[in-house]
Amino acid sequence: MSYARISLLVCLCSVLCGAALAQESSQKQSSQKPAEGFADRNPRYRVQANDVIEIQFRYTPEFNFAATIQPDGFISSQITGDVHVAGLTLTEVSAAVAKSASARLKDPEVGVALKDFVKPHFVVAGEVNHPGTFELRGSVGLIEAIAMSGGFVKDSAKRSQVILLRRVNSEIAEAKIYDLKKLMSPGQVHEDVMLRADDMLVVPRNAISKIEPFLHITSLGLYGMTMGLP
Description:
The protein has 230 residues and is an alpha+beta fold. Helices cover 22% and strands 24% of the residues. It has helices at 3-22, 90-101, 142-148, 180-183, 220-226, and strands spanning 52-57, 65-68, 74-77, 81-84, 110-116, 121-126, 132-135, 162-167, 172-178, 200-203, 214-216. Strands 7-6-10-8-9-11 form a six-stranded mixed sheet, sandwiched between helices. Helix 1 runs antiparallel to helix 5 (220-226). The protein is elongated. The termini are close together.
């Protein structure tokens, strides 16, 4: 196996796994088919590792503090102890911190403000001229994402079977195949699909006969091999 293939497979697994761990919620859903995927149009932001949040106690401001979420998803203070917050919305963080602080404070009211956050990004892998990670600024569709990555490799890209992988939860990614050859035709451009943070586009070299609609993130490396990634 070539160095390029190994590097790309590591990227394919590590990016999605890293994003999943950073946004893992307290409720495990691995045993059931996800109810929401591409249809979830307006999700609330979920904090992740390296985000900076400010915790404010309404009646006891002396306990206010700011914290950078650690790689393992925890924040810590003297009044709250260790609290796992990665994968939670700000409202859920407030509830988790209040619950932890209630061991020392009576009915604490907690506010949470997001002070800094990891910039949203997406990944393009496979048969493009410049695969890699790209910052997601505003609305970026499939066609623009391919252009940002230098366009298709002329002779080897399977343009009619571009795969969009979108993380549903900490263990599952939803997979959809798009015919970008058709989508790029003048009459179809309006059908372009907008990307979301942590999405991954994979342009395979080989034709794909079948792909499961929901994939375990740990299995994506094997799928990369079958897709003919370089």
